[in-house]
Known about the structure:
By secondary structure, this protein is mainly β. It has a single domain, classed as Roll (SH3 type barrels). About 0% of the residues lie in helices and about 40% in strands. The chain is built from no helices and 4 strands. It has strands at about 15-20, 30-35, 50, 55-60.
Amino acid sequence: MSGQSRANIKPGIEVNIVLKQDQRSGKRTSGVVKDILTNASFHPHGIKVRLEDGQVGRVKEITSN
Length: 65
């Protein structure tokens, strides 16, 4: 599932994100959502989240509900 819609993302779900420094390569990092940082209901590049380990990036894929 895509990470462009805020309604699909909730704290505790597992996602793949792209960190700021990995945007050019597109390298994905997986983790569990701690906080949702984007206030808008939709973002074309993915909703920005903070993972439980503190990393911040945009959600590219939701791997679990």
